[in-house]
Design goal:
single chain; 344 residues; alpha+beta; seven-stranded mixed beta sheet; 15 strands; globular
Length: 344
């Protein structure tokens, strides 16, 4: 009997290893000439895209193979004729590309003549999302409600939770109640568990989560201790290397000038080098107090606010110290303040 269980354990282990090593294989059929290149690039957690498979089209067909994916990966399946253009010295206006969004996981898949990837549950769910308008247009909550156990729902939930103060208490509670991880994507499930926990403390209407800072004189202080009182406050998180941050500062300054009776600004740099921060302030002087995160403050910004180095990041805070929202752009702040002024 012991021998039987030993052999059974070995067999199960073998099948597990086989599944882990299987990876993916895509058989494609497209109406494109021989010699076209076809490949897949997938996003990484650093926002860079990496190539994970490539091939060429022959007789209208191709095969793409890849190694085991630790976690299903969002990517793009592309075709192009760049090699043919170069080989035949064709003009650049003869270059052709196709782009198709996919969500790749281990298994056997098919790329159909109508440029659609099919074959795994993850991809079926992602096709449902595409049919709803795709990530940028679809109602993420509506998709999650219909697919509570889907890897794609985990992916969307993590995106919704990625920055603090973008969701309400009710929305965070709804995600926690609805999402039902199935153990298919351990990487995203771990990320989700961490994000949903942090999000409970950074919802719209909550107080500002404290951060450890240094002022321009090098004195240690806390964000809560330097927050102005009695006015609407914009916390502008920025960095010397962030072109978008610096470009937006004059617009923020105009808003501060136009609404100076009810509104003010403080800047919080996430620079890790003091000299770079000071040089940027000299080059871009703005009429509001400036601070820089300490090493601990920077880490807390990532852990509490779930921001990391994703600046510019803004928080609009009410006179009572409660966060109204995390606006995407200074123009959103102006629109909100205009509404306040109109009511008066």
């Amino acid at each position: 009997m012991k021998k039987f269980f030993y052999l059974l354990t070995l067999l199960l282990s073998f099948h597990t290893m086989q599944a882990q090593e299987m990876g993916f294989i895509i058989h494609g059929q497209v109406n494109l000439p021989d010699g076209y290149s076809v490949g897949i690039v997938c996003q990484t957690d650093t926002s860079f895209s990496v190539s994970i498979a490539d091939s060429h089209i022959k007789d209208g067909q191709f095969v793409l193979k890849g190694k085991h994916l630790e976690s299903p990966a969002k990517g793009t399946l592309m075709t192009n004729n760049l090699e043919l253009v170069e080989k035949n010295h064709w003009p650049t206006d003869s270059i052709r590309w196709t782009y198709n969004e996919i969500f790749l996981s281990d298994g056997n898949l098919t790329f159909t003549p109508d440029y659609r990837l099919i074959g795994t549950q993850v991809q079926r769910d992602y096709n449902d999302l595409l049919d709803m308008g795709g990530e940028m247009s679809a109602d993420a909550f509506a998709f999650i409600d219909k697919h509570p156990q889907s890897v794609i729902s985990l992916y969307l939930a993590n995106r919704l939770l990625q920055r603090g103060y973008n969701l309400t208490d009710e929305q965070v509670a709804h995600l926690e109640k609805t999402i039902q991880p199935q153990g298919v994507d351990a990487v995203r499930e771990k990320e989700y568990a961490k994000r949903i926990c942090a999000a409970k403390y950074t919802t719209k209407g909550s107080g500002v989560a404290d951060l450890d800072l240094l002022d321009v004189n090098g004195k240690r202080c806390q964000l809560a201790g330097v927050m102005p009182r009695g006015k609407y406050v914009l916390i502008d998180f920025w960095a010397s290397w962030c072109g978008m941050c610096l470009h937006a500062m004059p617009e923020v300054a105009e808003i501060a000038k136009d609404f100076n009776d009810i509104f003010c600004v403080i800047g919080v740099s996430i620079d890790t080098k003091d000299a770079a921060w000071r040089k940027a302030m000299e080059k871009h002087p703005e009429p509001w107090p400036q601070y820089i995160t300490t090493k601990q403050g920077y880490q807390d910004l990532f852990d509490k606010y779930q921001v990391g180095n994703g600046v510019p990041y803004y928080l609009l805070v009410a006179p009572d110290g409660k966060v109204i929202t995390s606006p995407e752009h200074p123009s959103d702040v102006r629109e909100y303040l205009n509404g306040i002024a109109t009511k008066k």
